[in-house]
Task: inverse folding
């Protein structure tokens, strides 16, 4: 069974930093691109960042470019999002999600974590 | 960046009725890379339809998707109580500011 477990969220002051993590199991993690999608409480979905299976390609939404860094450790089946210079607008649930596999790509997010809440407030 | 506009914002219907949800793109969606998701309170989204019209594994056949280019539709033929939720469309474009964008969502509520 595919499982994605998001962790690392919490309360952080404006201008601060935080790293959220995603632990994957039940599938060949190293064969999949991975993404972070966020959702402010009571609001819609926003794609944040994506990383290819071998970390060779990383993409970011304009709203986080230069502040957030996506990374992965295929040996540990883990995905990370380092968030710096956080502002109130970054308050959201952060979900990791699977993307394209090396054998199939329909540009959708098939499996999702349960989300990790990041709250930016003084 | 392709902007997706969903309508209506809220749809009030009764179980057994037919639901028609719209997703309109500001530019043509490449290769029909248009996905529909369902999200229930406290849960992550799940894929219903991808490539505009292909039902995901395990999705009941009362859900169907149609459309191409800039206009897409999700239809639920006969609403079941568990179908009342928020629905999002999402697209992919290889080049541009953001490769993936979501619509703002349609809330399907019980009348």
Result:
């Amino acid at each position: 069974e595919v499982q994605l477990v998001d962790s690392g969220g919490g309360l952080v002051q404006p201008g601060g930093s935080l790293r959220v993590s995603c632990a994957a199991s039940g599938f060949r993690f190293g064969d999949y691109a991975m993404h972070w999608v966020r959702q402010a409480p009571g609001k819609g979905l926003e794609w944040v960042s994506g990383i290819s299976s071998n970390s060779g390609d990383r993409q970011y939404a304009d709203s986080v470019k230069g502040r957030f860094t996506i990374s992965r450790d295929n040996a540990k089946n883990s995905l990370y999002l380092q968030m710096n210079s956080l502002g109130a607008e970054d308050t959201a649930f952060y979900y990791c999600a699977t993307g394209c596999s090396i054998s199939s790509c329909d540009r959708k997010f098939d499996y999702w974590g349960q989300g990790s809440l990041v709250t930016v407030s003084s | 960046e392709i902007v997706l506009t969903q309508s209506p914002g809220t749809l009030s219907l009764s179980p057994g009725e037919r639901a028609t949800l719209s997703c309109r793109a500001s530019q043509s969606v490449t290769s029909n890379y248009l996905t529909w998701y369902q999200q229930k309170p406290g849960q992550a989204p799940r894929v219903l339809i991808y490539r505009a019209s292909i039902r995901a594994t395990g999705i009941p056949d009362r859900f169907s998707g149609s459309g191409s280019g800039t206009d897409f539709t999700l239809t639920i033929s006969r609403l079941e109580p568990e179908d009342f939720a928020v629905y999002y469309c999402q697209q992919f474009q290889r080049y541009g500011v953001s490769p993936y964008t979501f619509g703002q969502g349609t809330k399907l509520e019980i009348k």
About this structure: The CA atoms of residues 14 and 87 of chain A lie 5 Å apart.
